[in-house]
Each structure stands twice: as structure tokens, then as C-alpha cells.
Design a protein that fits this description.
This protein is mainly α. The protein is built from three helices and no strands.
Length: about 70
Amino acid sequence: MASKPLRTIFTISKSDELDVLERIMQLDPKRRLNANETLQIEYFSNPSAPCPSERLPKPKDIQPTENN
């Protein structure tokens, strides 16, 4: 059974996201990227999109535990 390209399954995903997945999910270890190579992909050096502070997740209140 032939594998389906990720782009046909994840049709709304961005091209650069799929590129990362395709390169790190290679079955052939000679073609698969290692961690250092993966971090060199342009996807990881792109600045994230700005987000208004009110949309950022709020930290939960810290609850005291027996140790503190």
C-alpha cells in the first residue's frame, strides 16, 4: 500500500508546517533529519505572529503544596 502525501491529508495546513513533518517523519534514517538539522529549518527561525496580550493564556494561581 502506497503512502499518501501529507498535503493530501492535511489540506488546510501551511506548506512550511508540512515540510517539517515530511522531513522528520521519513522512514529511511538516512533521509530523516536529526534534532540539530530539524532546528535549522527555516520554520523554527520565523518569528511568531503577534498576539494581543489579552489573547495569551493566563497562568493558573499557584496553589500551596505540602513542600512550600
